[in-house]
Input
Amino acid sequence: MPRRLTLRLVPVAAAAWIAASICVFLPAAAGGVAIACWAAALGVLAWDVVRRPADTRLRQAVVVVVCALALAAAVASHVALAQPARAGVTELAVDGGRAIEVRATVVGKIERRVDGSLAFDAVATRIAVGDVRHAVRVDVVVRVSPGDVDPRTLLDVGSEVEVRGAARGSRPGDRAVLELRATRGVEVIRPPEQTAAVTAALRRGLLAAVADLPGEGAGLVPGLAVGDTSIVSAELDTAMKESSLSHLTAVSGANCALVVGLAFFGAAAAGAPRALRVFAGLAALAGFVVLVTPEPSVVRAGVMAAIAMSAVLLGRPGAGMSILSLAVAVLLVADPWLAGSLGFALSAAATGSLLLFARPLARGLERVLPRALALALAVPLAAQLACGPLLVLIAPQVPLYGVVANLLAAPAAPVATVLGLAACLTAPMPWLQDGLAALAWVPAAWIAGTATTFSDLPGDLLPWIEGVPGAVALAVVGLAAGVVIAVRRSSRRARAAVALSAVVLSTVTGVLAGSGLLTSVAGRWTLPQDWTVLACDVGQGDAVLLRSGDAVALVDTGPAPESLIACLDRAGVGRIDLLVLTHFDLDHAGGVDAVVGRVGTVLHGPTASGDDGRVLEELERGGAQLIAARARLSGAFGEARWRVLWPTARSRAFPAGNDASIVLDVRGGGIPPTLLLGDLSASPQRALEASGTLQPPYAVVKVAHHGSADQDAALYAAAAPSVAFVTVGAGNDYGHPRAEILDALTGLGARIARTDVDGIVAMWGSGDAVSVWRERGG
Output
């Protein structure tokens, strides 16, 4: 089949995707988009009926246009019809921190999200605000603390639960209408029933079967078999991402294709006719989807697997692209919010790249490599080239060893998947289940070892440009690499294209690699040599370095280890003499794994949960001495002195967290008088001001809580800062920093620096002579 025929449905999928993106991000426009697309589709169809063009290609183009417009209209109509119910929930005034109770049915497994928290998807059926109850039916996402949920409990897909806590509206484009923070726990009202109860018991049985197996491989077995990553440690999760192996623990088309293939060839071995083989494969796929939970990502993987198997059985990868395009369009009609899902985009990109590019890349690699090795490398290389530009939107970094890591881990993945799935299904026979789980542990441990080995290698992650520019740059590099590898030098034009691509590849890679060095190993040469206070740019979170001579203190660790490591590397900081954890919210303690084993003393705020205690235990096992903060406690690092101003005896009225976070006075040893206000809100700020412990004027003040509006202007007036800096993430959802506090600080004559605009901020000097260096402004 000619390639131009096999790609004809790509515009249909693109039209559905564009319409879905517009409508889910601008739902008010959905009705207008639907009417316009339906009208256009009918108009084109009427023109075709009246004119009846004789040109076959023109008639085929008309069919494609009509299908594209009709599917775009169907997508927009879905969003428009769903919008009244979604808007009704957002009008209930449940956000803003109000305590609410939500009755919901769990529809997704508990999983670790990008920000490190645990969360699950649910469908809310009732929302209670005070004594008023509202009947609803909308998607929500529930976030829970890791220490508050045991993955072996009855909190599983199909459970009916009651969530007590606070809510806020979700981000534009999200399927979930509300994001619930279960601050007061999750109670299971009704466990899963019928089929959901059976599959939940099977999954819990697999978790129990691997519980006593050693090392990190045990946690990977359920992930590889049924996509359950609830017992994968945070360290291994990070290593899997850094080595490009995290896709192995997500239920993907590869898992589904493996199950379908086993059933198909098993039926063939039994002599079943072709129709029965296909039925056996589809039945196995349906059972697998139910077992691993039919959440949207799994249904998507099942559809993609069916596409891939169809292409393989037909021996026509081009036909697979046609079916892929139609499937993407149909899935978007059924669930338009997939358009905003990076997972959906990655799945489609990976499947399309394998169908279109794996074979040409393999042929190109065969020119310099043995055929078997070329084929093995072509699959992960095609996926990495296609998915890399999307992945840098999550984290601006490129795993340099991803292809090699996948090459080494790939043989173990299907073995672990099959054995782990068999162990899951043999729960009624514990002796057999334990044996199969132990066998599955062997390849899983190999994958875990591969991930940790490659993530520990120097230079495993190349820092990259953030956002859309970074994605475009990596796409250009990937395209150039693909041309160099795959294009045959059979003509002058082909040789010119390869030469141009090689130049582009060398130039862009060299520039970006140099930029990566400047933001890491060689970055210390670009920072002022005299800095004594340095605010790291770690996104929406706090990480502040203080330096006195050769001694270094770090106040908070930011939300993630990767961003903190980048800052420490750039500043040339290896050992941390004093680590201050002002409180244990994720944006202040989420990056603590980056400094375990590198800390001398830990000064910490009040703990609120067992999870907080586990953070401290991990630091203590790494050799740190723990000190609980209290007012008037003081100490030194280098020649600088630090003093705790808060929490005090008065602060017992405030719960552990923002309002009980450590406030620190640091000065001397080259550090200008500095006041670090943690995340205090206005009420504890007033209590702090009244305590008489401040020693103004302060040359440098860290603005509390990322510049939120809940501030006491009188405290800042009393502190009389020369420089006020705000640690805040660019484009955050909270509107930080707020204009009110910025205006108040400007009115006091303070110079303002902020990490969202300025990047890293370095300060040194004293009093009015404090010098400020901004990464994005000098």
Remarks:
- The mean pLDDT is 80.
- The first helix runs from residue 3 to 6.
